[in-house]
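Re: beginner question about structure tokens

> Can someone show what the tokenized structure looks like for a real chain? I only ever see the sequence side.

Sure, here's an example I had lying around. Input first:
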Amino acid sequence: MHTIADDHTTDSVRAARADARAQADRRSEHMPYRPASTSPFVPDGVQPSALTWAETVAPGGYTHRVVARGTRVRLDDPTGLACAHIVLFNALETSERLNVADTVKIPWQAYLGDGHPLLSGDGRALATITEDSSGRHDAFCGTTTDSVSERKYGSAAPEGPAPSGRSRFLLAAAKHGLTGRDLPPSVSFFQGVRVEEDGTLRFTGSAGPGTHVELVAELPLLILIVNVPHPLDPAPRYRVGPLRVHAWRGEPTGPTDERFTRTPELNRAYLNSIDYADARGI
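And the corresponding structure tokens:
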């Protein structure tokens, strides 16, 4: 039986649909751009049509993506307040993941920068830093935990005003069937740390606005990115700026690249990655 209530419900649904569709052209300050070519922040020298990923990650936000071998991933810090915490997985076998200890040990260099590989525990290069205009990064401290955020900011809830890096990584990992047991320590870009003579860690902060870091994927990668304050940031409030991410297809490190044979250890890591990729036809 048709009733007035049915008319009211139908009108409400139609009104809701009309309102939702009216929002289609609205843009947020922090959002993924689809298609990627519509990004308003295309890096210099990159054709918009070449982009495969374009996104502005909000302060306290996170993102995740599977990228092909050879993909170039550029991170930009427009305000000088971003802090990009990153974990990498072999997208074909996620049991292979970023190993921070090997990342600083194999290259005999604890400070991340141009030419530095990001290594797995299987002796392969997952990615390489190919450009770095910041120089303020960290491979020592990982990201913030719930206890750190609660103690410092009074909250760590993922939906709250001060989410921890750990809680954000857990959300990103869950989108790919991974749990906390699968998450290794992360590295972070755009907020620096240095080791003093006595072994203490000194927070050096940002190099300022307008810096960028570019990576090349040496294998197909699952990338998890969290944009939260650095654990050693002394600011009493939750302070972090937007992070821009762009990616486009390219080539992995090969024998014609200077870094391929920079050291015997790096050469072996690149050869291991190439051997893995060739065996799988990628």
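Each token stands for a local structural state, so reading them left to right follows the chain. The radius of gyration is 21 Å.
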